[in-house]
């Protein structure tokens, strides 16, 4: 890793830029999204995977601001893809301009702007900003995680059977049915489930101890880049997806994201394996 890269400075920049994008997201929703039926919005991978003017305008703003503040860095964004492959030691920003777009388009408040920062594939800093509440989640590697400046700590729970677990469901209907079947098999094994529809906020909720664990398959890099670091820096055990085609040594599926309080992480992983999580 480039020793000249300051994670705390990148955390500060990620917060600054994400806040600006969060303000724009609300302005665009008031101007454009609320005036249209969700059925009229463009889609990507399926009929329920909507994309809005907010996604596009917010990512354009983030790219513009990073071009000024960090002109030597590269960007991978949900809407615009990768502008270049990073050189060794080069900073890469992982941008989800609006995580939880379906919530955003329906007027639900659970969506966020997520900016992660990596060097040579290693997470270095990140921020998740909620436009509606104004909450700011952030972290730098080795420096802990914060919510509005307050230090975050994951749950101290040690009994998986009492855990409140968050998860998500895929846009693809066939996969969503498999995931729902897994959830039904797991329902009697944990304390309760939550479904927010925003992966970055699910991960931040683990960091805050609001939920004890979170798992999901089929996420993209921008969905978890910032939130996974925030959860990890709050003391959670975090499992990120493997590289495409990589082996699955823990039996959770190569695409699995798992974040959990340290006292239940192994037990939750065991339950997921026992109920066929790798098959979803």
From TrEMBL:
Cofactor annotation: Mg(2+)
Recorded catalytic activity of this chain's protein: a myo-inositol phosphate + H2O = myo-inositol + phosphate
EC numbers for this chain: 3.1.3.25
UniProt cross-references to InterPro entries, sorted A to Z: IMPase, Inositol_monoP_metal-BS, Inositol_monophosphatase-like, Inositol_monophosphatase_CS
Keywords (A to Z) from UniProt: Hydrolase, Magnesium, Metal-binding
Record bears the keyword Hydrolase: yes
Entry-linked Gene3D superfamilies: 3.40.190.80, Fructose-1,6-Bisphosphatase, subunit A, domain 1
Keyword Hydrolase applies: yes
Top-level EC class as recorded in UniProt: hydrolase
PANTHER family xref list: INOSITOL MONOPHOSPHATASE, INOSITOL-1-MONOPHOSPHATASE-RELATED
Family the entry assigns: Belongs to the inositol monophosphatase superfamily.
Protein name per UniProt: Inositol-1-monophosphatase
């Amino acid at each position: 890793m480039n020793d000249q890269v300051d994670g705390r400075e990148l955390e500060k920049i990620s917060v600054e830029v994400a806040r600006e994008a969060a303000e724009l997201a609300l302005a665009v929703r008031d101007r454009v999204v609320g005036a249209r039926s969700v059925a009229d919005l463009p889609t990507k991978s399926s009929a329920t995977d909507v994309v809005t003017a907010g996604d596009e305008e917010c990512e354009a703003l983030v790219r513009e601001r990073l071009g000024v503040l960090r002109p030597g860095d590269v960007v991978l964004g949900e809407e615009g893809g990768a502008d270049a492959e990073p050189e060794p030691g080069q900073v890469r920003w992982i941008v989800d301009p609006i995580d939880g777009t379906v919530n955003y388009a329906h007027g639900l408040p659970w969506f966020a702007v997520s900016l992660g920062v990596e060097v040579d594939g290693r997470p270095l800093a990140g921020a998740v900003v909620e436009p509606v509440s104004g909450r700011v989640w952030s972290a730098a590697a080795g420096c802990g995680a914060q919510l509005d400046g307050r230090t975050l700590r994951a749950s101290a729970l040690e009994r998986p059977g009492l855990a409140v677990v968050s998860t998500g469901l895929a846009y693809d209907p066939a996969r969503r049915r498999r995931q729902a079947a897994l959830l039904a098999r797991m329902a009697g094994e944990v304390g309760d489930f939550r479904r927010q529809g925003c992966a970055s906020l699910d991960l931040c909720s683990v960091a805050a101890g609001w939920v004890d664990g979170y798992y999901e398959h089929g996420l993209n890099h921008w969905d978890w880049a910032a939130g996974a670091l925030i959860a990890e820096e709050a003391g959670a055990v975090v499992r990120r997806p493997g590289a495409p085609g990589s082996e699955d040594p823990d039996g959770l599926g190569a695409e699995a994201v798992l974040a959990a309080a340290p006292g239940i992480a192994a037990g939750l992983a065991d339950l997921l394996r026992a109920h066929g999580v790798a098959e979803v």
